[in-house]
Amino acid sequence: MTVRDLLAVPRLGLRLLAADDAIDAVIRWAHPTELVDPRPYLQGGELVLTVGTSLAEDPAQCGPFVDRLLDAGACAVGYGVGDVTEAVPEDLLAACRERGLPLLEVPAAVPFQAITELLADRRAEARTAVERQVHQLSVQLLDAMAADRSLEELLAIVTSELGGRLAYRDGELGWEPTGDTDVPPSSSMLRHVGSVLAVRRHEEDLALAHRRAEAGRLLRLVAEGKADPESLRDALTAAGVDADGRMVLAAWPERAAALIADGLGGALFADLPGAGGGTGTCVSLSGDGNVVLQVAVDSALPCGVAAPCLLGDVASALPAAVAALDLSRRRGAPATNRDLVSFDGLLEQQPLDRLRPFVETLLIPLAEHDRDHGTALVATLRAFLAGAGSIARTAQDLHLHPNSLRHRLKRIGELTGADPRTFADRVALAVGLWAWERRGRR
User: Fold this and answer.
1) Per-residue pLDDT tens digits for 37-74
2) Which run of H or E residues covers position 17?
3) Strands across the sheet containing 103-106
4) Which of 3, 26, 313, 421 has the smallest CB count inside 10 Å?
5) Residue 134's closest CA among 105, 162, 110, 92?
């Protein structure tokens, strides 16, 4: 109930004497008092009722009295005439007008209890109305859930009833006005409706998990050659993926779908338990590989992307995506099918134990010789490999005479048993150098 509403009750006969521009404030409760400083007993939003016992004794207290009421958040003051004074004190009237606090004159025949009882009745009526609205809205929502309406559709129903703008996040329903006439719903209303929506969100989460598990089952069967790729068509179409165009299959860590679904837009997600070496894998099928890579970067998640393929080639794309995911985990960046066929990509997929012999047999002897004799055999090998095995180019890069370079290469062969001038041995030395230079990164 607002101050304006209270003034409109004929049987009370209240008269507004000050601050007619502030009478739309809501009255939380009425508080009778004769204290000049009732702030310890006020919580804000009160209509403070007084007959002026303390103010009549010291009119100079009227200004500080009004200041204290405003400080406590009171919405108005009601002065009962006929008990202590026959009229509202001029000092109180002046203070209320100056400070903008509504001042109501309460006739002598109207007890303060009549005002408090009226406010109590209105509060009870409001509570009953809210409960009725909550009940009716709950019935609407339950009927809509029975008709398998989505969470977005349920939110539209709530918005049509409550107005404003609603947002449902993490089990809580938030509301904000969109216009001056929107009335905030009660916190109990939001909590109750939020609990109903939470049920629907849980149902949708379960249904989504079931669809992903089913898509994963179909995808695994397709990959194993036990199902036709066409069995994925309906699921792809429902997810917004063009089943007749080229699509991008990407592998992600288990349960990544919740983090990337919004960024990918139209995409089919499938959960593949045990894929990729025992840990679960989330697979996405979507239309744009660049978007996939950007989402991977933005979400800081490992991601392996296979080459774009048609529906009939999905089975062959899956192993490449899983292998690229493993490579992505090792290098800390998204990996694609192109990375799998590079020299670095091939070596990054190898376990450390498999590369250790190359380091111990081919690089450590060179590094120890450099340390003990002040030579630069490791640097010479690096330059020779970078120069594609060209004596002339490498000698120029190192500012050496070709014969000096040949002598160093011969010494490398003597220490390692691998001649860098032959292709096969040069590849082995390249593997050893690659593993040597990255030994501290993995």
Assistant:
1) 999 999 999 999 999 998 988 899 999 999 999 999 99
2) strand 15-18
3) 15-18, 103-106, 76-80, 46-50, 29-32
4) 26
5) 162
For the chain, which residues score pLDDT lower than 50?
A: 440-442
Strands 103-106 and 165-169: unpaired
Q: If phi over 0 gives left and psi between -120 and 50 gives alpha, with beta otherwise, what is residue 170?
A: left
Q: Is residue 65 a contact partner of residue 95, using CB atoms and an 8 Å limit?
A: yes
421 — phi, psi (to 5°)?
Answer: -85, -10
Say if residues 99 and 70 touch (Cβ distance below 8 Å).
yes
Could you identify the residue written with the tokens 């089952």? 217
C-beta of residue 346 within 8 angstroms of C-beta of residue 419: no
Long-range Cβ contact pairs of 150-157 (< 8 A, separation 24 or more): 150/204, 151/197, 151/200, 151/201, 151/204, 154/196, 154/197, 154/200, 155/197
Distance of CA 284 to the CA centre of its chain: 20
The tens digit of pLDDT for each residue in 291-334 reads 999 999 999 999 999 999 999 998 888 888 988 898 888 788 89
How far, in Å, CA of 67 to CA of 48, rounded? 13
> Phi and psi at residue 2, in whole multiples of 5°?
-95, 170
Give the bridge partners for 168, in sequence order.
Answer: 173
The 10 Å CB-count burial string (b at 16+, else e) for 105-116 is bbeeebebeebb
Given CA atoms 38, 40, 41, 44 in this order, what sign does their dihedral have?
Answer: positive
The contacts of residue 113 (CB under 8 Å, 6+ apart) are none
Q: Which two tokens stand for residue 357?
A: 């012999």
List the chain domain ranges: 3-110, 133-202, 228-348, 352-437
Question: Tell me, which fold does domain 352-437 have in CATH?
Answer: Arc Repressor Mutant, subunit A (1.10.10)
3-state helix, strand, coil in the chain (%, to 5): 55, 15, 30
Structure tokens at 260: 């990337």
pLDDT 10s digits, 221-256: 887 788 888 988 888 888 888 889 999 999 999 888
Query: What percentage of the chain reaches a pLDDT higher than 90?
Result: 28
Torsion on CA atoms 193, 194, 199, 205, rounded to nearest 10:
140
In this structure, which topology does domain 3-110 adopt according to CATH?
3.40.1390
Q: Do domains 3-110 and 352-437 have the same CATH topology?
A: no
| Beta strand extents in 102-202 (DSSP E only) | 103-106, 165-169, 172-176
